[in-house]
Amino acid sequence: MTISMRSCRFFSVLLLRSTGIGLMLIMLSGCESLGLGSLGGGHFTDLFSKDTDEVEIDEAEIAALAAAPNIERLWQVKLTESKTAVFYPVYENGGLYVADEDGSLIRLDASSGEEVWQIDTGKRLSGGVGIGEGLILLGTYKGEVLAFDESGSLLWQAQVSSEILSPPHVTSGIVVVRTGDGRLFGLNADDGSRIWVYQGATPPLTVRSYAGVSLFAGAVFAGFPGGKLIAVNLQDGNVGWEATVALPRGVTELERMTDISSLPAIDQNSVCAVAYRGRVACFELASGSQIWSKEASSNAGLVMDNQRVYVSEERGVLAAYDRSSGVTDWKQSKLGGRKITLPLIVRGARLVIGDDEGYVMILNRNDGALLARAPTDGSPILSVPEFLPDGFVVHTQKGGVFAFFLP
């Protein structure tokens, strides 16, 4: 089987399941091969590969980007470069918690970037950091869940079925972990013992997703391959409802990939999700009944405020849809044609995004206009920017942690 792409970056890998012969590893043409750790039966295409069609950018667009006002940098810290994992910095109680693939867990002073403490977990980390209820949570390529207290002392370690590609989350005494083989685990926050497990359906070919789960109102919300969005009970893992964001289309398995590879956005009344090569849709929180849907494609995800749903779509387009009707409010398509992160909503009607060339950008939330822009270290920013009291922080693929001021 041969798959060709006109351009390809990062660790683009396909694992295709073939009946009766187990797993077949297929590398995309022209891509660099990188280790994936313990895959635990996964079968993925990497969500960070470049779009298959080239994007033409005119000189005026490049000039406008270069002329954007700069964003003041507060501080920066260098960690180990990430080969295959995506790490999310997390702010909590004046501290910024960061981790890297080599096993370091570090607490930084959020205002200065100075190290408060650092520990070597002795593990190859693949997911983290999650934080809450006095726990700092990490995941490994071998399916280990590590729980530390705020001083960095190990409280417990638990084993799940396969690699953990996203931060574990905790609420109401239950730690929820998503694994690479399509399972959700509910663990006791006191000792890591298993309370429940949910097994999602997995089609033959799926997007390798670094999204985890969203916890809200006693439920766990997660998107799955095949365009499915589910809500399960936090206490026992039983399914409350299942909704379809998008239906697979096409003849080949590659054409039929319609995965929800990002986190859903939730508020008191609704939950919204977007599928890769599919649709964006919003549903009633309690019942899962569809409110509206619209053609869209994203593997980065969406966020929402009181007025709009903001979707980081393919080819570097940021789109804003009316929250109640789904009508397109605006689209910003002049960001250099790059892959962009999930937006961070910040004060002053602004959005912050990162891109795959290491730039951070501030946009006007009302019309998508570019307000300011700044470089980091030139490597991709793959996770959503994180809030800081005076601004925001990003973690790059090269291991750079950059904090910026937000006036």
TrEMBL record:
NCBIfam families: assembly_YfgL (TIGR03300)
InterPro entries, per database record: BamB, PQQ_b-propeller_rpt, PQQ_rpt_dom, Quinoprotein_ADH-like_sf, WD40/YVTN_repeat-like_dom_sf
Membrane-protein topology: Lipid-anchor
Protein's GO biological process: Gram-negative-bacterium-type cell outer membrane assembly; protein insertion into membrane
Main location: membrane
Full protein name: Outer membrane protein assembly factor BamB
Record-linked SUPFAM superfamilies: Quinoprotein alcohol dehydrogenase-like
Functional summary from the UniProt entry: Part of the outer membrane protein assembly complex, which is involved in assembly and insertion of beta-barrel proteins into the outer membrane.
Position of the signal peptide: none
Stretches assigned to the Pyrrolo-quinoline quinone repeat domain: 102-332
Superkingdom field: Bacteria
Subcellular locations according to the entry: Cell outer membrane
Gene: bamB
GO cellular component terms given for this protein: cell outer membrane
